[in-house]
Amino acid sequence: MSGEGSITRFGVIGTGRITRRLVADIQSTDGAEVSAIASRTSQRAQWYADQYGIAAAVEGYESLLVRDDVDAVYIALPPSMHAEWAIAAAQAGKHVLCEKPLTVATSQSLAVHAACKANSVRLLDATAWLHHERTDAFRGWLQEGRFGKLGHITAAVSFFHPFQSGEHRLDPELGGGCLLDLGWYVCSLARFVAGSLPNRMVAGRIVRQGVAQRITAMLWFDDDVTATLSCGYDTSTRKWFEVAGSDASLVCDDFTRPWHDRPARCWIHDAAGAVEQLTFEGNQERRMIARFIGDEPLDPFHQQALDTQHMIDAIQESVELAHHEPSAPPPREC
Ligand SMILES: NC(=O)C1=CN([C@@H]2O[C@H](COP(=O)(O)OP(=O)(O)OC[C@H]3O[C@@H](n4cnc5c(N)ncnc54)[C@H](OP(=O)(O)O)[C@@H]3O)[C@@H](O)[C@H]2O)C=CC1
Ligand SMILES: O=C1CO[C@H](CO)[C@@H](O)[C@@H]1O
């Protein structure tokens, strides 16, 4: 799946919230441009094209895939639609940059990988935090054992949002619920830090409006590394993690996307109480796009995405099993 041919021109599929940001990021990445945008309706495609200076507005996603002025597609659709359009794009010979979660199940993600491989196109899931310069520093510290023996990982991603109907995050058919949407981040963080898949887990959820609005999981990895992960739509904004080792801990309060008004940052707390704050410049989305259009092998990111998807499947199984209602309490003595 190394990919053939250069990638310059992107066709964008879907005109939602994330589209606005990524279109701007693609257009401001050296060597990349958005040449066409597709929507289910021509009016919406045209509105977006006019707003963002995109040459072609296309009605219908199929029509985008047959265009000669598109080398790669950026898929910004609800999660349950990712697999279908990623596979269709690969079969049309287009490289695939797909929003997270890559798909809604490991079986679908494997099918996407197989289609991209069979058609020699590049594939990357748009999990942008993995591409920040700061993440390279995390990787380096973990490899050199800066925190000593790893013990516990904590990660939480949430925001408070009483969604309106029509929102894909509330529609199970579209891959709604916080596990795929936000659990993707905390699972990717735990997998990134532990470097492997968990061997055991237990998870629970709070369901409202037909989907999981909050999920909490505890995971066990080899070598006694553990993790507690939390995500949800009913607590205020969190995008945090902590990695606790025998010698020091790493704390980061903005790992999924740095706060807009300050540089990406993290802290290292050592056993003596000394705290070092580190800050990092750079734009993770542009770096991700540059990596996607380059020729570096993307296999490590493929494995990271497949493992993340697998962890999500396992958490889903665990929450379905964990529906134990406690028996009635004993009578209270007055
Ligand atoms: N990387 C990041 O930081 C973020 C990633 N995301 C991810 O991006 C993807 C899209 O999320 P978001 O932009 O918030 O979604 P939106 O609901 O804002 O947009 C989704 C788009 O998909 C198209 N679509 C096609 N069929 C449907 C359908 N049945 N229901 C709703 N939309 C449909 C629509 O475009 P049209 O009508 O033009 O065809 C719509 O605008 C998700 O996978 C999400 O997880 C989201 C936010 C941030
Ligand atoms: O990936 C994402 C990042 O954060 C958003 C909220 O701010 C999510 O809903 C989204 O899907």
From TrEMBL:
> EC number(s) on record?
1.1.1.292
The record's section on InterPro entries has:
Gfo/Idh/MocA-like_OxRdtase_N (IPR000683), GFO_IDH_MocA-like_dom (IPR055170), NAD(P)-bd_dom_sf (IPR036291)
Keyword terms, alphabetized? Oxidoreductase
Domain GFO/IDH/MocA-like oxidoreductase, by residue range, is 139-250
| Start and end residues of each Gfo/Idh/MocA-like oxidoreductase N-terminal domain | 9-123
Q: Which GO terms describe its molecular function?
A: 1,5-anhydro-D-fructose reductase (1,5-anhydro-D-mannitol-forming) activity; nucleotide binding
List the Pfam families hit by this protein, alphabetically. GFO_IDH_MocA (PF01408), GFO_IDH_MocA_C3 (PF22725)
Q: Which domain of life is it from?
A: Bacteria
Record has Oxidoreductase as a keyword? yes
What name does the UniProt record give this protein? 1,5-anhydro-D-fructose reductase
Species this protein is from: Novipirellula galeiformis
